[in-house]
Amino acid sequence: MGYKAKQRCTSFIIHAILIIGSIRMLLPFAWMVMTAVKTKSQAISVNPFYFFPVDG
Amino acid sequence: MRKKTVRERSEARWGLLFIAPTILGLIILNFYPILQTVYLSFCKTGDFGLGNVFTGFDNYIRLFQDKEIWQSLINTFKYAAVQVSFSIAISLVLAVFLNRKMKGRTIYRIIYFLPMVCAPAAVAMVWKWMFNQDYGLLNHVFGTHIQFVTDARIAWICVAVVGIWSSIGYNMVLLLGGIQDIPKDYYEATTIDGATGIRCFFHITIPLLSPTLFFIIQTGIIGALQLFDLPYMIMDKNSRAFKYVESVTYLFYNYSFAKSERGYGAAIVILMLLVISIITFILQKTEKKWVFYNE
Questions:
Q1: Cβ-based contacts under 8 A for chains A and B
Q2: How far is it, in rounded angstroms, from Cα B275 to Cα B268?
């Protein structure tokens, strides 16, 4: 492996680790935003991926 | 002792005058309450919650026989050990990664620092929701039905995870500052001698970072031992698991304000003060062994 390719490989691995870490860090905030646009019954419904309530 | 000249005496007088506001504030707001707490720990709250009756060492005798206190001390130590070690390890790796020149460095730094900006109690509420057994996000994503906060064996780990999550950003920023203080010459010299990235990390970054690491470890341990808001917000107070997660500070709160036994609460706080002082003392003794100051 050449120097350039090796550099790119390292940088890719570091980015991958950082992105996975970022997702873990941002998860609660995403959850906060998601819950903010829900009614109470939707917020405690079994499917947490209920994004935008249709009936307001 | 040599007699002071007029000028020196005048300087000393002005110096005292300038620090007087701070000293007065410390005495009135910090030292007086500490002495008051020590006195209170020898007292029992009077009938109908009025006045304090001096009872000598009764509170302390009760303290050493109270199983709940020892359990909560164990809980707090477990939490502190896990939270401080993991948080420092993760933030050290992050700081090294985010110190190199790369795309999106600022965005990563912002993301990892974000939890520090939020109110801890509000964040703990969100985590409580995510850990929920029936409609929580984590159980939904992984398709499991784990009792995250009601099972005594894993509840304290969940609390520690939230603690790690919220302290990474602060530690990372401090470590980044420390790394940027290390002169580039050392790295250049080792690269010429043929050292790779990992050897550089262990033989240059960590020794030269040890003052910052020492500071973070010390403040981290003290902060973790004073844990209060996370278990208080995340856990259900009536759950069976709460006994194995509650912290010493929570017990203090419970006795002083909920049960209105101020004397016993004060005794708990004094115990905590002693424990933290002993740990700090031991840490300070070990400082000379592994902390290198770059003179």
A1: 53
A2: 11
Residues 6+ apart with CB under 8 A from B248: B69, B72, B73, B76, B225, B268, B271, B272
| Residues 66-95, chain B, touching A (beta carbon < 8 A) | 90, 94
Residue B294 is classified by DSSP as -
B111 shares contact with chain A (CB less than 8 Å): yes
Q: Which residue has the tokens 């107070």?
A: B237
- B126-161 confidence digits (pLDDT tens): 888 888 877 777 787 777 778 888 888 888 898 999
Tell me the β-bridge partners of B44.
B53
ipTM over the 0.95 cut-off: no
- Taking CA–CA distances from A41, the nearest residue in chain B reads B135
Backbone angles phi, psi at B145, to 5 degrees: -135, 55
CB contact under 8 A, B127 and A28: yes
Three-state secondary structure call for residue B55: coil
Under a CB-based contact definition with an 8 Å cutoff, are residues B126 and B119 in contact?
no
Residue with tokens 């995340």, as numbered in its chain: B234
d(CA B203, CA B208): 9
User: Are A22 and B108 an interchain contact pair (Cβ–Cβ within 8 Å)?
Assistant: yes
**How far is Cα B213 from Cα B211, in angstroms, rounded to an integer?**
5
Question: What pLDDT digit, counting tens, does each position of B91-111 carry?
Answer: 999 999 898 888 888 899 999
Residue whose tokens read 């069976």: B240
Q: Which residue has the tokens 């031991």?
A: B282
